[in-house]
Structure formats: structure tokens, C-alpha cells
Design a protein that fits this description.
The protein is mainly alpha-helical. The chain contains four helices and no strands. Helix 1 packs parallel to helix 3, helix 2 runs antiparallel to helix 3 and helix 3 runs antiparallel to helix 4. The two termini are 14 Å apart.
């Protein structure tokens, strides 16, 4: 595993545990802005993947998609203000980790 894979894994891990950035009670405009931010970050990550080739590129894309799914799941659950949202977020993390591993 090279340094880029390790840094990508650490980035996903930090997102997994850093859920304090999203407020519990958010307005619709805040929700839309956060969703747009997630999409912009995903597009930026996709552009970074363009410099890779073959398997490294596939891993980079899988990491970017997983990061986006986890972030969107967190956002949805916080926006809906669900008390027990840990399961869906954990499931999104596991699916993204599996996609990277495959």
C-alpha cells in the first residue's frame, strides 16, 4: 500500500469520526449548501484521481465515491434529525471500505 492509499484511507477514517461539523437542527438552505459542498468535494477528488492509472485510479475513485456516500448519509440523517442514525452511517462506511478492498 503506497502513501496515497494510506492518506486516502486516513481521510475516510477522519470523516467517519468527525461528525461534529454538521449541526443537529439545520435549515433547508444549510442542508442544500452542505449537499452542494459534498458534491464539490467529490468532483475535486475525482479530478485528483485523473493523475493515477490502472488499479491506483480505480482505488482512488472507489475512495472518492465511498467518502461521498458516507458524507451524504451523515447529512441526511442529521437533517432528518433521527436519534439512532449510527447504523446507516456504519453501513455506508462498511460498503465504501468493501468497494475499496475489492
Amino acid at each position: 500500500m503506497n502513501k496515497q492509499h494510506i492518506s486516502a484511507f486516513l481521510a475516510i477514517s477522519s470523516l467517519a469520526f468527525g461528525s461534529g461539523a454538521i449541526a443537529q437542527n439545520m435549515s433547508e438552505s444549510e442542508y442544500k449548501a452542505a449537499r452542494k459542498s459534498i458534491v464539490n468535494e467529490y468532483n475535486s477528488d475525482q479530478l485528483k484521481c485523473g493523475s493515477f492509472t490502472d488499479n491506483d485510479k480505480n482505488i482512488c475513485i472507489a475512495v472518492a465515491k465511498g467518502k461521498k456516500k458516507v458524507a451524504k448519509t451523515k447529512l441526511e440523517e442529521h437533517y432528518k434529525n433521527v436519534d439512532n442514525f449510527d447504523y446507516k452511517i456504519s453501513a455506508a462506511r462498511v460498503k465504501s471500505d468493501y468497494a475499496v478492498a475489492v
